[in-house]
Structure formats: C-alpha cells, structure tokens
Amino acid sequence: MKFIKLSSFLAATLLSTSVMAIDCLKKSDNYIAQGEDYFDAEDHLTFSNKQKKELQKLLKELKGEWKGTFYEVDCRGPQSALRVHDVNSSVKAKVASGRHETIAFRLAKKNKSTTRTELVELFNKYNLFEFKKRQSEIEMVEKFYSGRAGGGSNLVERQITFTRPDKKTLKIDVTGYINGYFGYKHSIDLKKS
Q1: 126: nearest Cα among 105, 96, 98
Q2: Residues 157-185: pLDDT tens digits?
Q3: CATH code of 69's domain
C-alpha cells in the first residue's frame, strides 16, 4: 500500500513539475535562428533512395497494433492570460502506411469516459525540413500551414523525436509551435500488442 501511495505521489509530482516547466510564450529555436524566413514552408527536404528504403523497412516493422499512454499539454486562452492544460490518456494505436513514405498512426485515446480518435502522420515528405537518423532515434522537423476557424492560416512547426529502443517499444515526442510560439507537447509511449 505504501508503494502505491509513493508511486502516485511521485507521478503527480513529476507531472505537475513538467506542466510548470511549460512556457506558453516560448519561441521556437528555428524561429529565433531564421527570423522571417521561418515562415517559408515551401523548401522542404527530399528523401534519398536510401532513406526511402529505410522508411519502408521501418513501416513494415511497425505495422500492427500498439498500446500505451498519451500525455498532452497545451496552452489555452487569450495571449494575455494563457494557461497550461494537460491530459493523460491510455491509447491504442494502429500503424499503417500513408501517402508516399508517410507512416500513419490511428490513435484511440481514452481519458475517463471519453474516447477520441486521431490520425497522426509522420515522415510526410512535403512537410519535412530536417531529418536526422541515429541508431534507434530519428529527429525531424515538419512545417506546414493549417487553416483556422474564421479564415486565414497558422504555420505549424512540429519538432519530433521518434525513439525505438527495441522492436516492441516506441516513444514519440512531438513539440508543436504555432506561428513560431509554443503550442503543445505530446508524449506517446507504446508497446507492440
């Protein structure tokens, strides 16, 4: 019983610490480095034939059913009074191929009595601006324009770390910036079913 209480206390402490560390007005490092050129989302990367083959192999290995947890934190409210909002969910994921070398994760997130389905696509060559692969980790930066309610659009930058320590374990961390400023962070921990 003491172990459960201690575990719950540690989990709450770690989660509240991570939420408190979020800076809703933090600028993207890429925005700081590139200035107004940051908003050019047309000069994307092109995968080499070797990278295409590596991604196709990875897709074959990832296809199937996965289970795990999904932690998301974002900033809400008017800019003058932004507040941090966070949610922990259990998640089931089905991995399939998308367009081109894209890997599609269909996530079913369950939190309390609510289940929400979401499609997350990674490695979309039309959105990719940085791509680095090291042994069990891939880092990438995607940028694209997304329409907003009421007209206009926002530039979305996603900094993604994709870690695969073994064939049955997968961790995906996504930090999203909207028009150069922090918007959200997602951490997805999955085990193959």
Answers
A1: 98
A2: 999 999 999 999 999 999 999 999 999 99
A3: 2.40.128
